[in-house]
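Your task:
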Amino acid sequence: MVRQSSVHITEATDRQVTALKAAGFGTFTDIVRTAIDRMYTEAAAREFRDPQQQAAYILECELLSDQDAGVGPAEAETTTG
């Protein structure tokens, strides 16, 4: 599911987004999605001490992210590794 939202950004963040776009990181939406995904994965790494539990949680997050992006299981395997 994709839904529209709005974000208020500072001038510094706007400059960073402009630089990331120029470097080929995609649209503003792509950049925000990637940033949130990385922050979420990092939080999961701190949250779970057990490596197996952590790996299962991160895999679940990746599968949810792939579903949100409209990527099916076969495509997900080739895009994530």
